[in-house]
Amino acid sequence: MTTSRPLISAMQVTLDGYSSEGDAEWVDSWADGLALLPPVDAFVLGGGMFPDYERWWATILDDPGAASDMMGRDPYPREIDYARLAAKTPHLVLSKTLTDPSWPTARVVDDINEIRTLTQQPGEAVYVVGGPGLLSSLINASLLDELRLIVHPVVTGRGTAVFGGIVEPQALELVSAEPTTSGRLNVTYRLASQISQGSAG
């Protein structure tokens, strides 16, 4: 391991490589990514994603009735668990435009090096929630340790490309690939930059 706290991204993607930002009918639950991770005690998000993320999980926690109206169903127990964890866990939001998030546990930073500093502090894994812009920035800066994907058996042909912001080709090491009964594939990759740094150490 190259850092005290590994940065691990978990994202839901289509088979043709688009993210689940916005309204994605093919996503069953936004809470599913957390199940792919070891224990986490910090979250990292991009500024473009955070406002909707904050409203979504605050509504599930504070007004389940309104959340049911939004989703057309009652929140799953795992979604309530996620909302409770998110409400008490520090969130670092990388943005040059956001200022004061309403969540008391959220802090806006405008320099990716503050995320680097976070990884050097003692603690558990850090959950990189997204979105694609943040993911690309972390990969370009050689900060991301692992990429965990829920690959859905759907092709959309459009959307936000998960890796659209990558500036150099990236080699990945396959750690695991687990098919599910729903047809989704849970895949874990280790970033090659982290592999080489670990070998050098």
Topology readout:
Blueprint: E1 7-14, E2 40-46, H1 50-62, H2 64-71, H3 77-88, E3 91-94, E4 106-109, H4 113-119, E5 125-130, H5 132-140, E6 146-152, E7 172-179, E8 185-191, H6 192-200
Parallel strand pairs: 1-5, 1-6, 2-3, 2-5, 3-4
Antiparallel strand pairs: 6-8, 7-8
What does this structure look like?
This protein has a single domain (about 5-200), classed as Dihydrofolate Reductase, subunit A, CATH 3.40.430. Helices cover about 30% and strands about 25% of the residues. It contains six helices and eight strands, in the order E-E-H-H-H-E-E-H-E-H-E-E-E-H. The chain has helices at about 50-60, 65-70, 75-90, 115-120, 130-140, 190-200, and strands at about 5-15, 40-45, 90-95, 105-110, 125-130, 145-150, 170-180, 185-190. Helix 1 crosses helix 2 (about 65-70). The longest helix is centred in the N-terminal third of the chain and has 13 residues, at about 50-60. The radius of gyration is 16 Å and the shape is globular. About 30% of the residues are buried.
Give a nutshell description of this structure:
The protein is of the alpha/beta class and 201 residues long.
Whole-number tally of structural domains: 1
Q: CATH superfamily membership, which one?
A: Dihydrofolate Reductase, subunit A
Percentage of residues in strands: 25-35%
Q: How many separate helices? A: 6
Instruction: Give the CATH level 1 class.
Output: Alpha Beta
Radius of gyration: 16 Å
Class of secondary structure makeup: alpha/beta
Q: SSE order in H/E notation? A: EEHHHEEHEHEEEH
Strand order of the largest sheet: 4-3-2-5-1-6-8-7
* Major sheet summary line: 8 strands, mixed
Low-confidence stretches: 195-201
Tell me the CATH architecture.
3-Layer(aba) Sandwich
